[in-house]
Amino acid sequence: MKKTEIAVIGGGPAGLMASLAAAEMGARVTLIDRNSRLGGQLVKQTHMFFGSEKEYASIRGIDIGKILSAEVLKNPRIETMLDSTVIGYYPDDGVLGVEVEEKTFVKIKPEKVIVATGASEKFLPFENNDLPGIYGAGAVQTLMNEHGVVPGDNVLMVGAGNIGLIVSYQLMQAGVNVKAIIDAAPNIGGYWVHASKVARLGVPIMTSYTVKAAYANELTGALERAVIWQVDNKWQPIPGTEKVLKVDVICISVGLSPLAEILWQAGCKMKYVPQLGGHVALRNENMETTVPGVYVAGDVAGVEEASSAMIEGRLAGLNAAKSLGYDNGTFNEKRREALEQLESLRSGPVGEKIRQGLAQLVS
Predict the structure, then answer these.
(1) How far apart are CA 43 and CA 62, in angstroms?
(2) Strand spans (E) along 82-132
(3) Which of 223, 252, 281 lies at the terminal end of a domain, its last residue?
(4) Which Pfam families match (predicted)?
């Protein structure tokens, strides 16, 4: 049995910031991540961030990941466990079961837990949606931005949110032909700055369209063409509006679902909130769930931008450390600053959906 003051599950933007904030207050932290390096989704994000200087504005996600990872790895109060997957939470005694390098099972007994496990990609049901050549947007980013491999020559992007628009632009930067971006919603869901970049390059963005079917090449069995069709204001397909696109890649970017299995195991009260991506834990302003000592941060707490995930992580780390009695006299100021940053990031029309979702989560 291994003991620690604070266990942070997930080494993405939220987990990194949570670990640094807790250690900054004086707590001992064990950061657990299933990957071989820290950074989470940041390691594949080549675009520059928005926001203020405090949210790493004008810095690329991959560079933010390197900055935060370096700070974590050199911090003497943070122990990092890589290639380690938390496969169980035992609520009777608050123990985490961790599989290390697929070889060893380790039990960790933390005084506090911060769950920052992120989210997984949603998929889309349509005929032959399991053909080779059909990817989630995250997989396409991994292929291109981590391994330098393009997924194909001609792409249909499904989803005009920020991820769909950003990945489309990255595909074009790599020399891939994006035939079209479609979205079943009547309006583009992402920022106009991203949409404008792809539109200027001649890529049609077709709203109120979805995928009807995909068809394979008879010889190779791989994707050869996609059939799309229009939907009405009740999301029902309109027969006779079909269009055929010759593509060898369909990239699905239709949202994320919080990876909340650990929270269910812990016995946290959960609620389905569509504005936040799915089932999320009820929590208070300190990011503490209905199970005392269990905190959440990042996409597992509600799918938002990485900037919000980082600030939520900082808030969770500060509060978890404070609950253990750590306060070097700066806690109140740091907590206030984090809350103000979150409020700013969620302000205006862009944050309306997030604010609606968060209003349902008061524990």
Answers:
(1) 5
(2) 84-90, 95-100, 104-115, 119-121
(3) 252
(4) Pyr_redox_2 (PF07992)
List the beta bridge partners of residue 230: 209
42 and 91, same domain (yes or no)? yes
The CA-based dihedral angle spanning residues 29, 33, 36, 40, taken in that order and rounded to the nearest 10 degrees: -110
Does 145 share its domain with 221? yes
- Stretch (H or E) spanning 311: helix 306-323
Give the count of domains, the chain.
2
Give the global pTM: 0.91
Q: How would residue 45 be classed by pLDDT, with cut points 50, 70 and 90?
A: confident
Distance CA 177, CA 204 (A): 12
Residues 243 and 17: their CA atoms lie apart, in Å, by 46
Q: What are the beta bridge partners of residue 157?
A: 181, 251
What number of helices (H) and strands (E) belong to the chain?
Answer: 10, 19
List, for residues 62-85, the tens digit of each pLDDT value.
899 999 999 999 999 999 999 999
Question: H or E segment at 197?
Answer: helix 192-200
Q: In angstroms, rounded to a whole number, what is the distance separating the alpha carbons of residues 31 and 96?
A: 12
CATH of the domain at 226: 3.50.50.60
